[in-house]
Amino acid sequence: SNPSSGLITPGPFTRDFELEWAEVGLETLPDPQELADPVAAFLRELVPMREAGDDDYFSSKYVAPGGSFRTNIMDVSQTDSRRAEWGLTKYHANFEANCAYQLELHWLVATGTLLGDLISSYHTKAHSFGFHLLPIPCDLFPMPHVEPEDPAGADPLRGSLFVPLRLQALVIRPDLPDIVDQMFQRFLPNERPQRLQLLMACLLRRFGFVPDCAGVKDMCPVWIHCTAGMMVMLPCASQRLVPRRYGTLIDKSRRFLQQATAGPAGTNLARVEGVPVGFIWSWNHILTRRWRSSWTGDEHFQDCLLADFRRFCANDANRLKDYWDSIWY
């Protein structure tokens, strides 16, 4: 246990023990006074800084050997069987109540019905303890025509959407290219891209999105809606803001944004180091009726949320400007 960090960390373990048992560090809930802080994260005097390639700050306070994710052997068959059926469970090393928690199942030798029963038992047990276990695709953000040789990214029916953030409404001189510099002119220039990321994270929280794993906090590039029906990615202009495990996804998103904003509509977008400011939006296409409930919502709810999010980001009815002014004054 590490009282100073507020994190209960697993003790020493061997590789054999890790394969047989699952150990997860538990992050304590934040101080209520910290949650009630009226100063938004992107306007605080100090923001957490990091160096390129530093994955520890984003992934977890405790990082297991080999990274922030760990694996152990999964026994697919819950009954005595002569056939050997097994797989691997990949899970995050830390759990935080205010973040999504990732659990991946990989298998080579398994019967489909037995695997389905195992997942159903996980779902039932999680629900009995107050958790919601829902499936999400491994490829969260398919981007057609970005990498034609990649089958997972070439499905046009699952293409991601780009929602631009109209920052021009927040500055006095929207005709100038340095919109982000105008917004955060009271802060150091090297902090401004990071403060923009924090602003976008605050907007996502207002619409019910949470970071995709513990320890990432407000600087996570990938966010998942609390209903698990939608995912959003924040394109990062600065490599200093990108954790290693998101590097390939961010590079892929930049090529996607170049195509999505290549027309006349992309000429009036705010940009940071040439990258358009906005959100990459994707749907959870495997959240079928089997997994839906009253709190997950349906497709109509998802469409309404996207439409409302677009109107907010476009400053419809002056909503974005009113939020910006309410934070400053």
UniProtKB/TrEMBL annotation:
Output the Gene Ontology terms for molecular function. GTPase activator activity
Source taxon at top rank: Eukaryota
Per the record, its GO cellular-component terms are: GATOR1 complex; lysosomal membrane
Domain called DEPDC5 C-terminal: residue spans: 70-317
Q: Name one GO biological process term.
A: negative regulation of TORC1 signaling
What start-end ranges are recorded for coiled-coil regions in this protein? none
| InterPro entries registered for this protein in UniProt | DEPDC5_CTD (IPR045838), IML1 (IPR027244)
| Pfam families associated with the record | DEPDC5_CTD
Q: By what name is this protein known? A: DEPDC5_CTD domain-containing protein
